[in-house]
Amino acid sequence: MISIGVDLGGTNIKSALIHPEKGVIKNVSVPTEAGKGLESTLNRIASAINELKDVAEDSVKGVGIGAPGMISLDRKSVYNPPNLPGWDHVELAREIHERTGLNALVENDANLMALGSARFGSGRPFDYFIMLTLGTGVGGGIIIENKIFRGATGAAAELGHISIDYHGAECNSTVPGAIEAYLGQRFLSRNAANEIEKHPENQLYKDFSGDFSKLEPRDLSEAANRGNKLAVAILEDAGRKLGYAIVNYVHTLDIRKIVVSGGVANAGDFILKPAYQAAMERLMPPFRTDFEILPEILSQEAALLGAGTLALENL
Amino acid sequence: MISIGVDLGGTNIKSALIHPEKGVIKNVSVPTEAGKGLESTLNRIASAINELKDVAEDSVKGVGIGAPGMISLDRKSVYNPPNLPGWDHVELAREIHERTGLNALVENDANLMALGSARFGSGRPFDYFIMLTLGTGVGGGIIIENKIFRGATGAAAELGHISIDYHGAECNSTVPGAIEAYLGQRFLSRNAANEIEKHPENQLYKDFSGDFSKLEPRDLSEAANRGNKLAVAILEDAGRKLGYAIVNYVHTLDIRKIVVSGGVANAGDFILKPAYQAAMERLMPPFRTDFEILPEILSQEAALLGAGTLALENL
After folding, report:
1. Residues sharing a CB contact under 8 Å with residue B236, sequence separation 6 or more, in sequence order
2. Nearest 5°: CA angle at B287, between B285 and B289?
3. Could you give the residue ranges of the DSSP H alpha helices within chain B?
4. Which residue of chain A is at minimal alpha-carbon distance from B247?
5. Sign of CA dihedral B293, B298, B303, B308
6. Angle made by CA atoms B248, B250, B253, in degrees to the nearest 5
7. Cβ distance A275 to A242 under 8 Å?
8. Mean pLDDT lowest among A67-71, A225-229, B253-257, B287-291
9. Contacts of B136 by beta carbon, 8 Å cutoff, 6+ apart
10. What pLDDT, on a 0 to 100 scale, did the predictor assign at position B265?
């Protein structure tokens, strides 16, 4: 038995045939063209699914779909996904069933990255772990007893919106000092630009002062790799703040394995090492035992694998 | 079938016969006399249990014991409970069985307050809720699907040690800006004294400037009740900070019912109302639906009831 996983983003719809052991068998990616509206996007999702169904050599159990935004407790509907205008409340499972004849379930994309990691990635050895996705925003998923922890209504693990400073920086969150305000890609870049502006002698100033909006976290890690101390310090500061947020997660949940994925996570040890050190300094002693921060070994595929797994295990 | 619940504190050992519907049938309280050492305290616990067992009119299923500090995952052992010198690692369940012939389980006292609340108190209507205990320290328990959530090793819900300000105040925690540093009884009193010192015209200054160490949260709520605006402002500030911590819990767990118990909670609306307002301002909109902060209706008995329930449901 196999399934179809879909990762619905504002730019691309990624989809794949997913096998419970082999993982991705075949994948199809099409542009979302969100601007053309809901109907158009639904039809594009459905034709990607139908294309995969037609080439499947095994029977397809159903479809799992990862979407940004809030998901209903029954995993059938999506509410206000960011970057998808016109999607106020979409009964996505029903719309897909009507267009493909396949049963479908929807889940938050960060939760599905956690599930993908649990079955195929860095989370595999652990029954309990926390997935942090460091991208445009900061997302999270919590795995408890090998399953996605959903909370009372299905909205658990908004881990980017945990404040580490109640009078701290604002971001596109209702929460001042939310960790997303320090680690989200845009905020990290902006904070870095503010620092670099103070150091006209630094190579990063020379490279980006013409247009700081072009500075990306990747530029910081590349500069850090070349020994640029300012870049190292900027990433270290962001990493330590991530560590402070992680202390809050660990003291709440008693889950001591943290898996980090996403673009910003590619800064690797420049962020994760100071995060680990800051957390170890501040965790209560019993929580330091077995505490670990690991990068996700799967790259883009984690969410797709999680989406396929959702269908395989829950339909 | 009934059980025996024990609430082991640094000052008193409280114990009671617990009936699953009627709650406390008969209780016995004896001083802990922790200074006399481990053996003495174990014997005192055991004789309280034996006394209750002898008067029980129904068969006793076993003993549930609430203790401060870390508890082993199998609920048999206690590690380093504060206020009990010499208790580095005690196999409490075995020690009690040897002295009483009854099977026993141990659990963290804040977790048992949550369980007691879930079966007999304010938590009764909810399958998911968070218990906050505002006393000398700030403790917590998390109820998920009507059971204590224990995390990966049994140490979950150290909710007093969640930082709301990474460069904030120190307390007897490894975490600067931990919510305990603002709401823990001693810290709240000390912060209040610092404020009152700036206002020699205030009645609280007149009453306590001779010895600010005598100022207790109760004095603040009594003054607030009499219309003392400074007292109101101090409690409001503490309440708002509690609200910020609650936002972190809610965004992590998607649990929207918060039950608050303990001495400081008796300041009631002076703390809980600003906590609610601050949380509602900062919660992401979907989490505001059904969000509620409630005082615990059980007083001292919550932990005892939880301890008895633990034995009834798990032995």
Report:
1. B270, B271, B274
2. 90
3. 38-55, 92-100, 109-120, 180-183, 185-196, 203-208, 217-225, 229-253, 269-282, 285-288, 301-314
4. A162
5. negative
6. 105
7. yes
8. A67-71
9. B184, B185, B186
10. 65
As a whole number of angstroms, the distance between CA A314 and CA B295 comes to 38
Cα angle B176, B181, B187 (rounded to 5 degrees) comes to 145
List the structure tokens of B158. 């150290």
Backbone angles phi, psi at A105, to 5 degrees: -130, 145
Start-end of CATH 3.30.420.40 domains in chain B = 2-115+300-314, 124-295
Residue of A nearest to B245 (CA): A163
Q: Residue B264: pLDDT above 90?
A: no
CB pair distance less than 8 Å for A164 and B162: no
Q: How far is CA B194 from CA A166, B77, B187, B235, B267, in A?
A: 21, 41, 11, 13, 19
ipTM of the complex: 0.95
Secondary structure, 3-state, B198-266: CCCCCHHHHHHCCCHHHCCHHHHHHHHHCCCHHHHHHHHHHHHHHHHHHHHHHHHHCCCEEEEECCHHH
CATH topology of domain A2-115+300-314: Nucleotidyltransferase; domain 5 (3.30.420)
Candidates 3.30.70.3340, 3.90.180.10, 3.40.50.10320, 3.30.420.40; CATH matching A123-295 = 3.30.420.40
Q: How far is A79 from chain B (nearest CA, A)?
A: 10
Query: Are the beta carbons of B255 and A163 separated by less than 8 Å?
Result: no
Average pLDDT, chain A: 94
Q: Counting Cβ atoms within 10 Å, is residue B96 exposed (0-12), middle (13-18) or buried (19+)?
A: buried
CB contact under 8 A, B252 and A174: no
What are the chain B neighbours of A174 within 8 Å (beta carbons)? 281-285
State the smallest CA–CA distance between residue B91 and chain A in angstroms. 18
**A92 contact partners, CB below 8 Å, separation of at least 6:** A42, A65, A67, A76, A77, A78, A104, A106
Chain A residues in contact with B128 (beta carbon < 8 A): 151-152
Q: A284 φ, ψ to 5°?
A: -65, 145
Instruction: Using alpha carbons, select from B208, B209, B211 the residue that is nearest to residue B222.
Output: B208
Give the containing element (helix H, strand E) for A40: helix A38-55
Question: Which member of A159, A163, A251 has the closest CB to residue B161?
Answer: A251
Helical (H) or strand (E) element with B31: strand B23-31
Between CA A314 and CA A94 the distance in angstroms is 16
Looking at the whole model, is its pTM more than 0.90? yes
Q: Which of A108, A158, A180 is the best residue to mutate to test the B interface, defined by the most B CB atoms within 10 Å of its own CB?
A: A158
Confidence at residue B10, expressed as pLDDT on a 0 to 100 scale? 86
DSSP A197-239: TT-TTSHHHHHHTT-GGG--HHHHHHHHHTT-HHHHHHHHHHH
What is the Cα–Cα distance from B266 to B121, expressed in whole angstroms? Answer: 16
- Residue of A280, A195, A190 whose CA lies nearest to A232: A195
Class of domain B124-295: alpha beta
Domain with CATH 3.30.420.40 in chain A: 2-115+300-314, 123-295
Q: Which residues of A touch B159 (CB under 8 A)?
A: 251-252
From residue B125, give the alpha-carbon distance in Å to each of A156, B118, B146, B305: 20, 8, 10, 17
- pLDDT tens per residue, range A136-158: 889 999 999 999 999 999 999 99
